[in-house]
Specification:
about 475 residues; alpha+beta; 7-stranded antiparallel β-sheet; 6-stranded antiparallel β-sheet; about 30% helix
Length: about 475
């Protein structure tokens, strides 16, 4: 995934930039970067954050940064922000998104006179560099950004920093948020709205799909109007979004309470308590427990001082070990109990299965699992949400293949498995339950998920749940 933050201020912006970027740390695990425009031009710093938090990597760098305008990012992939010297001027650029047609766009740039790209250590092209190249195919920045958004298959939001302004652009279909904040003497732009609240900014506007704005310290000017069609990722509310964030007027924590409420309204299982898998399963579980009139308990506590995120390591073996080591049981809340356990989702199922085994080893009597989203049937093709290399990494598709006797299942047949009222759906869920060793298993329904979010269904992307594209 990834996140970004930018500031244009009448005074020095460095500390606001530093903390604003830091508040996006839950969105990326590999690299982070800052760029500030000062009296001597653009000063930039990029660090690997795989084994250390953002703050510890940048806390000494910022002593040397001075300026009234800056951008920064947290990234799971490429090094950025990049500094570009072009016919449209010198600027820094950072992006959040995914490009599925990199080779096609690279050849287009070659044909238009772009003769080279710098290769990464893996021999790949930095997608942010490719975005900058596409922008510079046009005679001005705004036309260039619009052109890049139109040509990219996937999604691409971006910030471009010039000496006196920032251009912010939300991806074509608004799959991810770009949000503007304002204070008395500054404007900021962010992925997460909660990143600027403690810095003294108030909400100014959510950019619309494909909208481009020019931001200075005292004004925000729309230079390209929004597109009508929006397909915002529904999984942001369910999992990736920080609880204090608000997208399209819908707060993440509030949505998760509603999600848990609707989960319980379709459920009558008799248990002693409700628990949520930390962190993103907790709010769903609170909503479920409040609706059921059941106690919410924490039968295991996540040890976070040294392992802030279970998906930090890049190897699956390391991630599994970290996930196990960070959950410490409270045996008094486990032994002999019947529990409803709510997780945000089931993807591969590995970690959740091991968590349930962990509870049984500690003496739990029953574990009833309630995922807070529908079965994930398709890997996302629009955002870098997952490390999955294939749809067959998904537990749902593995089970479907075992039922159908082949991995080559038609779209029409897959639709049956996406339909919670179809017998094949029930068969898939039962096989997942047995494989995972749950007492019972009930997923959140897609119609209830959409109701939990509370915005028009046509404005939400639900591809990973039902395969419906643009």
């Amino acid at each position: 995934m990834g996140g970004f933050f930018g500031v244009v201020s009448k005074t020095d912006c460095v500390m606001h930039l530093f903390f604003g970027v830091d508040y996006h740390s839950h969105l990326g695990t590999k690299r982070a970067g800052l760029a500030v425009f000062g009296q001597d031009g653009i000063k930039r710093s990029i660090h690997n954050i795989e084994n250390a938090p953002f703050r510890t990597k940048f806390e000494y760098d910022i002593d040397d940064f001075k300026g009234r305008i800056g951008i920064g990012c947290i990234s799971d992939n490429e090094a950025q922000p990049l500094i570009v010297n072009s016919r449209n001027g010198s600027f820094a650029i950072t992006t959040v998104g995914r490009i599925n047609n990199i080779e096609e766009l690279k050849e287009e740039c070659f044909e238009c006179g772009r003769v080279q790209f710098l290769e990464t250590s893996k021999g790949l092209i930095n997608p942010t560099e490719l975005v900058a190249a596409l922008i510079n195919l046009k005679d001005n920045i705004v036309d260039g950004i619009a052109y890049a958004q139109e040509r990219i298959q996937g999604s691409m939001s971006m910030l471009l920093m010039f000496p006196d302004k920032i251009y912010a652009a939300r991806d074509k279909y608004g799959r991810t948020p770009v949000i503007i904040g304002e204070s008395k003497d500054a404007h900021c732009v962010a992925f997460e709205s909660s990143s600027y609240l403690n810095l003294g900014y108030k909400h100014y506007a959510d950019l619309g799909p494909g909208e481009i704005v020019e931001i200075t310290e005292d004004k925000v000017i729309t230079v390209k109007e929004k597109n009508e069609k929006m397909k915002m990722c529904s999984f942001l509310w369910t999992y990736y979004g920080y609880p204090t964030a608000t997208y399209e007027g819908v707060n993440v924590e509030v949505m998760r309470y509603k999600c848990g409420e609707l989960l319980r309204k379709r459920d009558d299982v008799v248990v002693d308590a409700v628990a949520g898998v930390p962190d993103s399963g907790i709010a769903h579980a609170i909503g479920y427990a409040n609706t059921a009139g059941l106690p919410y308990t924490r039968p295991f506590i996540k040890y976070t001082p040294t392992w802030p995120r279970s998906f930090m390591p890049h190897s699956q073996a390391q991630r599994k070990l970290v996930a196990k080591m960070k959950l410490i049981p409270v045996n008094e809340l486990i032994k002999g109990k019947k529990l409803v356990l709510i997780d945000d989702s089931i993807v591969r199922g590995t970690q959740l299965r091991e968590t349930v085994e962990f509870l049984y080893d500690a003496g739990v009597k029953e574990v009833h699992v309630r995922p807070a989203c529908p079965p994930i049937m398709f890997g996302c093709k629009y955002l870098n949400f997952s490390r999955n290399n294939s749809d067959m990494d998904l537990i749902t598709r593995q089970v479907v293949a075992s039922i159908e006797g082949t991995e080559d299942v038609s779209e029409e047949v897959l639709k049956d498995y996406c339909n919670p009222d179809h017998p094949k759906y029930e068969m898939m869920i039962e096989r997942i339950r047995k494989r995972m060793n749950f007492k019972t298993l009930k997923y959140h329904r897609l119609d209830d998920l959409i109701e939990s979010i509370g915005i028009e269904p046509c404005k939400l992307c639900t591809y990973c749940f039902n395969g419906k594209e643009d």
